[in-house]
């Protein structure tokens, strides 16, 4: 099976998403996963796509930066696909990892892209440092209108009320990341943030200090979730 993956960084890039899906469809992708999220954020659809791929499949993206922006993550994805004997194709580079040359060139390009990004970040740091020394740097301007909307939503948020919007729903409504929303909530209403129980507390209070029992319980939960996903996708 030929599997496609499309990604844009924000919900405002509808044209970019449509173009990627169109390209993936034209090369014969039978299943396409898509999402609108930053490459450095949690990419649930990418995880689903990688989990869905099976031996002999081909995983296709239109551009390398739609898949990853870091060498470490690229190598991680490459390893995951290689372990399942899944080929990777990058359309705009005309590269296919099923060939020795394609795999080699793709690796080189990934390292070059990372090197260029590091240079860009270094230049950015130098520019910011210079601006600060000259008293010209003010940081990113705050959108007061957005902050007011966030504050209003945070004030109305009540996780104990089933009628209240969830954090995810509020973030989607305001077209911001959940992380950004949590930062604002931590500043103006920290009491509304749900604090997770630590691993050590769970081991001590639930499993009577038995770490092996805790590990076995976690493994069982992971297997249950994996089985549930397989049933949902019709694989079982």
Walk me through what this model shows.
This protein has helices at 14-26, 44-52, 64-67, 71-83, 100-133, 144-156, 167-174, 178-188, 199-205, 211-232, and strands at residues 2-8, 31-36, 58-61, 87-90, 95-96. Helices cover 57% and strands 10% of the residues. The relative contact order is 0.07. A five-stranded mixed β-sheet has the order 2-1-3-4-5, sandwiched between helices. It is α/β, with parallel strands linked by helices and 236 residues long.
Question: How would you summarize this macromolecular structure in one to three sentences?
Answer:
The chain has 236 residues and is an alpha/beta fold.
List keywords for this structure.
236 residues, alpha/beta, Rossmann fold, 3 domains, five-stranded mixed sheet, 10 helices, 5 strands, 57% helix
| Low-confidence runs | none
CATH architecture verdict of the largest domain: 3-Layer(aba) Sandwich
**Strand segment tally:** 5
Strand order of the largest sheet: 2-1-3-4-5
Main β-sheet description: 5 strands, mixed
Q: What structural class should be given to the helix and strand makeup?
A: alpha/beta
Distance between the termini: 18 Å
Give the ordered list of helices and strands: EHEHEHHEEHHHHHH
Q: What would you report as the Rg, rounded to the nearest angstrom? A: 22 Å
Shape: globular
CATH class of the largest domain equals Alpha Beta
CATH topology assignment of the largest domain: Rossmann fold
Helix content: 55-70%
The CATH fourth-level homologous superfamily of the largest domain: Resolvase, N-terminal catalytic domain
Average pLDDT works out at: 83
Total of domains:
3
Strand content: 5-15%
Number of helices: 10
